[in-house]
Write a structure and sequence with these properties.
The structure is a homodimer.
Chain A: E1 2-7, H1 16-28, E2 32-38, H2 40-47, E3 57-61, H3 72-75, H4 82-92, E4 96-101, H5 105-116, E5 126-132, E6 138-142, H6 152-170, E7 176-180, H7 191-201, E8 207-212, H8 215-219, E9 224-226, H9 229-255, H10 258-277, E10 286-289, E11 295-297, H11 304-319, H12 322-332, H13 336-343
Parallel strand pairs in A: 1-2, 1-4, 2-3, 4-11, 6-9, 7-8, 7-9
Antiparallel strand pairs in A: 5-6, 5-10, 10-11
Helix pairs in contact in A: 1-11, 4-5, 6-7, 6-11, 6-12, 6-13, 9-10
């Protein structure tokens, strides 16, 4: 059995999406056991709309809900909120293996660090979405927003975290790691990139292949792309925006003439296949890597399907043994050089 | 007459693309006068393949060619190269109004600053491509790679340069300016973004609307997006990569069945319309803003069409009076706060 705690009240479509998504996930994966945190009456009412296996669902009543605009730092004290109470239970209940929420990113990062806590040796957790790539697989991009300002040692740890996620979550045997930069030559980028490049080149346990550019994330010649949270966020949102733009343009073009509307009838399957391959939500949000247990931050606008994917992803990394693998690789990878550099600069 | 100097040897497809592109541009715009720099025999041989107005073309023989891999800093001394000689002529010949090259970006930036020189008061030039957006127009994104590390005063100047380009090159009356950030809230981002936000908010002569995210570049609610050269480059290349990815997926999906192939026959026009709207090269490369005369850096892989677009864009900003407008707005915009901040931090 895999016990996953789901913040039923997180996100714009809560508790509808969280409940419907969890039910869908539990139907696909019979090992799942779902614990909701949230306003019990609301969650129960939503749950009644579905047929579900009552033996595998549980609701913990939490009267408070953290909203998207609430200050993340002060929201951590609201232990009766669905999100922070979920973190509490995740920390204290050994049987609960992971948390899924569509709540405020800032609150998730703060709660994850202050309540659940980081894996020993991890400086800062990193948000890591899986971006669909042109090989038909995924490129893991981290950090995507948890840390706007980074030091070389943090980026080097992200390389370790991403490598482990690629192995434990996606079954990649020897994931290739690239450093997001403004050119592929060795000397490219600012001081942060140049120093990180040097340290990554000598690190054990990861397969660092060098600098990569923004376009390489979707082209997918590497499996893990390491970035500071600022530029990782810019890259992710630029790609998401571009994907939406393309689908909008296509929609307009199809509607522009009768002939193209007829063509669409023939091409519907192909175009839906395209839309599916471009779906940034297919793996269900971003994993917040580096915490003592897996935490998945699903989009604020998550639909039931997104939540279901996030829960499946959480179960997947639990089965893959993500956290012990992070501990092991952190010990193996010789990060002394990185730590040393940071202390003296 | 508008005299434009074209580095015939720059780019992967030189001199074929430069020559064919210049001929095409000159046929569309009868006011154009083209001066090529390059290996005369090669350029002439290429030119003979076209019918062109001999009275409006000139070739200056330059035996040397700067290659993509040559060190930019040392290449500036190679004054017999097609690129650096073009900069020399642009600086000394008052009649020559602009330069177009598909040569190495690094060499163009160094040559532009050391030979041609910056407009008085401009700290650093910025590379500014025009990104197609979902309104059917363009969003100007700067800097996209000339300056990996930036200070607040530089970003504030980019806001001025972008505003002027939007007016002089695209006829926008009151361009909206956004600051590329990892969220839209006022306090978002690192120290650089937070300081820049404060100064931009009080600046005269520009219409600063606040922080924007990566997705807003293609969505196009703003006209000018200001970024440091590192994250601007990441954003641009992430979008380009995503655009290519989409077209590749679409191609594969069309080929996947007979029915979708039939559908394609009906939808060809619509899909070509989409491809055209996604074309990042339609405005012809990036303008290197802040120099004493307009310099356009066309893609290294420019096709004749790209070069023709770059030349048309150069003529356009000359007619729009780009450089005097930059001088005027720089004086108007109160940059004292920005300069002051930079000096004391």
């Amino acid at each position: 059995m895999i016990k996953i705690i789901v913040d039923a009240m997180g996100g714009d479509n809560a508790p509808y999406s969280s409940v419907a998504g969890a039910v869908a996930a539990s139907q696909k994966d019979k090992e799942l056991y779902i614990i909701f945190t949230g306003r019990k009456a609301e969650v129960e009412a939503e749950l009644q709309k579905h047929s579900y296996d009552k033996a595998r669902f549980e609701i913990i009543d939490c009267p408070d809900v953290i909203e998207m605009n609430d200050n993340p730092a002060s929201s951590v004290r609201r232990r009766q909120s669905s999100l922070m109470h979920a973190f509490e239970l995740l920390k204290t209940d050994e049987e609960i293996q992971a948390l899924v929420t569509a709540g405020s990113t800032g609150a998730v990062i703060v709660g994850g660090q202050l309540i659940l806590g980081r894996i020993k040796g991890v400086r800062r957790p990193a948000l890591c979405p899986a971006v669909p790539n042109s090989r038909g697989g995924y490129t893991l991009l981290l950090d995507c927003g948890a840390n706007a300002e980074c030091r070389p040692a943090m980026l080097c740890q992200f390389a370790v975290l991403g490598t482990v996620y690629a192995k434990a979550g996606f079954g990649m045997e020897n994931p290739k790691v690239g450093l997001l930069n403004n050119g592929t030559e060795d000397h490219k980028g600012d001081t942060l990139r140049q120093e990180t490049y040097k340290i990554l080149s000598g690190m054990k346990g990861i397969d660092f292949v060098g600098n990569v550019e923004g376009r390489d994330i979707v082209l997918g010649d590497v499996d893990v792309v390491v970035a500071d949270g600022f530029s990782g966020n810019i890259a992710l949102k630029s790609m998401e925006g571009c994907g939406k733009f393309v689908l909008n343009v296509l929609k307009k073009q199809i509607k522009s003439s009768l002939i193209s509307k007829i063509g669409y009838l023939f091409m519907r399957k192909a175009l839906n296949g395209m839309r599916e391959q471009l779906d940034f939500d297919k793996t269900g949000g971003a994993l917040l890597l580096g915490l003592k247990k897996p935490v998945i931050k699903s989009h604020g606008s998550s639909k039931p399907e997104t939540i279901a994917n996030s829960i499946a992803n959480a179960a997947n990394v639990c089965r893959g043994g993500l956290v012990p693998a992070v501990e092991k690789l952190l010990a193996e990878a010789d990060l002394a050089a990185a730590e040393n550099f940071d202390e003296h600069n």
